[in-house]
Specification:
Elements (H helix, E strand, L loop, with lengths): L6 E5 L2 H15 L10 E5 L4 E5 L2 E7 L2 E4 L1 H7 L5 E4 L4 H4 L5 E2 L3 E4 L8 E6 L5 E7 L3 H5 L5 E8 L3 H5 L3
Parallel strand pairs: 6-9
Antiparallel strand pairs: 1-2, 2-3, 3-4, 4-5, 6-8, 7-11, 9-10, 10-11
């Protein structure tokens, strides 16, 4: 059992799918699913989960649609990315918030409150998603303290939901 509780899963209507599709395209610049793919939405404790062809590839957090780590692995956007050094990777993959000194690059378009994705410097592989606490400019300056609040990471409950 993964430990995440999924409730009220329902198939989305075409106009709901279109609205989510357009929001993700405008936010990340990638097409998260193809026309005709099944998209379901379910509630969990912290956010809503978007199932694309029965795989949890998206979330809706604070009324903002975004891709999960699996969705990011499938689509690989360039927008809203925060790159961390390899020393931060073990902490990020265990769910720690991202601290300013570990950041080596960040999208300058990032504003506080935006959903962002975290990748490592060597491979560019998505490790986590989170909510920006400071702007992209401040992240590049390596200001001390928390820069991104972690929401979902590799090997967490949402990641393991797809392995059942």
């Amino acid at each position: 059992m993964s430990g995440i509780r999924v409730r009220r899963r329902r198939r989305l209507r075409e106009r709901e799918v279109k609205a989510l599709f357009e929001e993700i395209v405008s936010t990340l610049g990638v097409e998260p699913f193809l026309p005709g793919e099944m998209v379901d939405r379910a509630e969990s404790t912290d956010f809503d989960i978007l199932f694309i062809n029965n795989i949890a590839e998206g979330i809706v957090y604070d009324d903002k649609a975004f891709l999960t780590v699996r969705g990011l692995l499938r689509n690989r956007p360039d927008k809203l990315a925060v790159t961390v050094d390899m020393g931060a990777v073990p902490y990020v993959t265990n769910g720690a918030d991202i601290m300013g000194p570990g950041i080596v690059d960040a999208d300058l378009a990032i504003q506080p409150g935006d959903l962002v994705w975290i990748r490592d410097i060597n491979n560019g592989v998505p490790l986590a998603i989170g909510e920006a606490l400071i702007s992209g400019d401040e992240m590049k300056e390596k200001s001390p303290g928390r820069a991104v609040k972690s929401i979902h990471h590799v090997s967490d409950k949402l990641w393991k939901l797809n392995e059942e």
